[in-house]
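Materials and Methods. Structural model of Helix-turn-helix transcriptional regulator. The 289-residue sequence of Helix-turn-helix transcriptional regulator from Streptomyces doebereineriae was retrieved and submitted for structure prediction as follows.
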Amino acid sequence: MTSNVPLNELGEFLKKRRSELSPRTVGLPETGGPRRVAGLRREEVAQLASISTDYYTRLEQGRMQASAPVLDTLARVLHLDDDERGYLFQLAGKTTTRTRRHGRQKVQPQLQRVLDDLTATPAIVQGRRGDILAWNALAAALVTDFSRIAEKHRNYPRLIFTDPAMRSLYADWEGSARIAVAQVRMEAAKYPEDPRLIELVGELSTRDEQFAQWWGDHRVAARTVGTKTLNHPVVGELVLDWDTLTANTDPDQHLTVWTAAPGSPTHERLRILASWATEQNLSPSASLR
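The predicted structure was written out as tokens:
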């Protein structure tokens, strides 16, 4: 039986995005009178997309699928960015595909070799849902000793919301947490019936009001690149660029590395942190298998 989860999710996503747009933003005249709904009305979106109001209403109610040209037009009308547009298409494309059951992920040998060679750069490998599959010693020193966390709880979004030390570590904890929620939301479009993902969202929604609020915003983000400022308890402030590489052999495995420009204060502090990690005998994941 085909699940309606993606269709319902698509409808909620469309409603949320149109609620954040004003008529002036999309080039419609302001009537000046009170509006019964936040943002654009359904008929206004339909007008801009050159489709009937009934057609658009059915999309929002999860009662029908949209064609690719209509999705493309709606993405333009609703001013979606690249990540949001990709998310919209993922939701629409999953409605007729049976969700595959996925077994336990293992780090690809190619990624493991790269990880083992990165002795001066913090790096982790994440899998589906943001699960932490592998790490090097410097990543353990930078973030936390992942080996002390039960494997079933070794999940980056979960750590951000449940480990108090993470709130102190991230200078902009809220910004990082919002991105984590948006990345989980993107994962949910790919695997809407993943029981572990459903469990993760349910747990964090119950435990943290901010997670529940931001989950309801329907923001999405892919794992790409960025800059983070960390307040490390041992070496102080670190301004790190992060980048994500995806394995061709398993698109659900991503290598994330944190780097700093040579000669910068952060670069020198990473060297100090690497020495500290050796003194603390922090282990990379490879030695645990």
